[in-house]
Design a protein that fits this description.
Layout lengths: L11 H4 L32 H31 L6 H17 L2 H9 L5 H34 L4 H4 L5 H15 L1 H6 E4 L8 E4 L5 H9 L1 H26 L5 H35 L7 H20 L3 H9 L1 H13 L5 H8 L10
Length: 359
């Protein structure tokens, strides 16, 4: 059963005699020193049209992600003899997006109506969302380090044969799960007030634990986002500088897909993580809390989350649009299945360079 958390059911005056209803934010975090505690804060209500539009976007993203990432998994799994270290990372990235795509119908219902699936599903689906994000950026960091070794230190022959890439991927999945554990502990389905709808959200509470919990958010944000981001920026910064000092057009073409994947990931997820960081700073008391700031951050989290969710269907579009190797391997599958002729494959590949280093 989902948890009902009604302020009317609690005798808050016994806990904080000088507090009033406005001392509590949307999700029950008590901050008696905030400016918002001095006056009631209105809650912004999303227009119905926007709710259904977001639900439609989630549904469309789910469909595109399931089709596109299934195709990516098929192509990479089929090309065993021509699979690079980067391909193994991208295979895991596609699997992560596939798992997350399965949660999108539930989030669509939540946006259009309210959370009706209870606390267990809230924890599971929120966990999948977090694991998708952390595994995504950690896998991209792994790709950046592999490409850095191959291009800057000219160790491609070694990196292509490293069998331990599978163990690295397993480690990334385990680390992503560990970074996502707070979601299992703190996410619940609850009713903020009688006038509001059921939500699946982080339930922090209104005692001293709230401040500690808000500060603990910094740990996964640091190790699961900021540090991998620094690694990626360093590796790709050095690689781009090195590549454009040489005339190796083959390596430049091989980098286009990977750079596009990284840039799209940052465009989709960086705004959400900036909003989440601001929310963490506000909840921990590092920045002053006001009604306007609170509503602005809530709106930012809601809006940027849409962009982050949409990311799950973007990578296959990148592969098919600028990934020569991906298109060639896909056509090989069609030839093997007798869907197209070998002559058609030859005509398609004529005049185009074939890269074996990336999708």
């Amino acid at each position: 059963m989902a948890k009902t958390v009604l302020f009317s059911d609690l005798d808050l005056s016994d806990l904080y005699p000088d507090a009033n209803y406005s001392d509590y934010d949307y999700y029950g975090t008590f901050n008696p020193n905030s400016v918002a505690a001095k006056a009631p804060c209105g809650i912004d209500v999303m227009p119905p049209v926007f709710k259904y539009l977001v639900a439609f976007i989630y549904g469309l993203t789910c469909l595109l992600s399931l089709v596109g990432n299934s195709l990516v998994v098929l192509v990479i799994a089929y090309s065993k003899g021509n699979r690079s270290v980067t391909d193994v990372y991208l295979l895991n990235l596609a699997i992560a997006d596939l798992l997350f795509a399965l949660t999108l119908p539930f989030w669509a219902v939540d946006r259009a109506h309210e959370w009706i699936f209870g606390t267990p599903m809230c924890k599971i689906l929120s966990l999948l969302k977090e694991v998708n994000f952390y595994s995504g950026i950690l896998l991209l960091a792994g790709i950046s380090m592999d490409r850095y070794l191959a291009i800057v230190h000219a160790t491609r022959a070694v990196t292509q044969k490293r069998s331990w890439v599978r163990f690295v991927c397993v480690g990334i999945w385990l680390l992503s799960f560990l970074l996502s554990l707070p979601v299992i502990i703190f996410h619940e389905a609850f009713l903020p007030t009688e006038e509001m709808k059921w939500v699946c959200h982080e339930y922090i509470g209104w005692n001293q634990i709230s401040g500690i919990r808000a500060k603990l958010r910094i740990l996964p944000q640091t190790f699961g986002f900021i540090l991998p981001l620094i690694v990626m920026l360093f590796c790709y910064g050095v690689m781009v500088h090195r590549l454009y000092q040489t005339k190796n057009s083959q390596k430049k073409k091989a980098m286009k897909v990977i750079l596009a994947v990284v840039l799209v990931f940052l465009v989709c997820w960086l705004p959400y993580n900036i909003s989440l960081l601001l929310d963490t700073l506000m909840r921990s008391g590092a920045i002053g809390e006001t009604c306007d700031l609170r509503n602005s951050i809530d709106t930012a989290l809601s809006g940027t989350e849409i962009l982050g969710f949409a990311h799950s269907c973007v990578n296959p579009i990148i592969y098919t649009s600028i990934g020569q190797k991906f298109r060639n391997n896909f056509l090989k599958i069609l030839v093997t299945r007798g869907i197209i002729s070998k002559e058609a494959l030859t005509r398609f590949r004529r005049g185009s360079s074939f890269s074996s280093t990336s999708l």
